[in-house]
Amino acid sequence: MGAQTIRLLGVEKHFARAGKRTHALTDINLTIDAGEFVAVVGPSGCGKSTLLRLVAGLMPASAGTVHYDDELVSEPRKNTGIVFQKANLVQWRNAIDNVLLQIDLRSLDVSEYRARAESLLSSLGLSDFLDRYPHELSGGMQQRASIARALVHRPDVLLMDEPFGALDALTREQVRVDLEALWLRDRMTVMFITHSIDEAVLLADRVVVMSARPGRIDRVLKVDLPRPRALGARKAPAFIELVDTITQEFLARGVLDDHRTQRLLG
Fold first, then answer.
1. Three-state secondary structure along the chain?
2. What is the pTM of this model?
3. Full strand arrangement of the beta sheet holding 189-194
4. How confident is the model at residue 17 (pLDDT cuts 50, 70, 90)?
């Protein structure tokens, strides 16, 4: 099966706890085309991660529907890859066996996927670390292994929930470049959640800008930058303009406060 189109129609999500109701998401309507890379950026608490979990089938929507092509999403799908902010590697398995873990869990023939696991780890700069255990890997290496694990079964959809959030700036930049290269090669449909405006623009075909809670889609912006977007992409006028557009959107809505420093200094 090839990359699939994701459609969210009138999606809302409410949570109730101790008699208190929280309206997390409202009126989400979005189509992510097959093979498209879409980034979702917004303030903390706006429901970005909740949105990803709804798309993954990890929780039900309170209203509306999520579809992959014509299939209604009502439970987790076998052919979706998910990467979370923490790598969550199994401590007693080395890097390549962590990548192959989900192949084991799916009762598939591990021998048929070992070459792909090695290739993915090599593409992510881990060819010399296949036999290393998590405690022998840096945080960036662990996250690269988790990305390889999400891709090893050739998913048609890849969902990523702030996967670079815990990485240092240099590692984050390299993993971003590596991820783009893998996506250009395999062209799965990607939904990428991030707090970083720069990261969203550098990776995505389109950037979805969300409001504060209850989260809704404020704008969807097309990214007109040639690929691959190497380390120098930040110098491109189109990148600078789009980052400024999104920043101004958050300033206008009070998500960012350009005058806070002066007020704090008195």
1. CCCCCEEEEEEEEEEEECCEEEEEEEEEEEEECCCCEEEEECCCCCCHHHHHHHHHCCCCCCEEEEEECCEECCCCCCCEEEECCCCCCCCCCCHHHHHCHHHHHCCCCHHHCHHHHHHHHHHCCCCCCCCCCHHHCCHHHHHHHHHHHHHCCCCCEEEEECCCCCCCHHHHHHHHHHHHHHHHHHCCEEEEEECCHHHHHHHCCEEEEECCCCECEEEEEECCCCCCCCHHHHHCHHHHHHHHHHHHHHHHCCCCCCCHHHHHCC
2. 0.92
3. 80-83, 157-161, 189-194, 37-41, 206-210, 217-222
4. confident
Distance separating alpha carbons of residues 108 and 93, to the nearest angstrom: 18
Q: In what order do the strands lie in the sheet with 20-32?
A: 20-32, 6-17, 63-68, 71-72
pLDDT digits (tens, 9 = 90+) for 49-100: 999 999 999 999 999 999 999 899 989 888 899 999 899 999 999 999 999 9
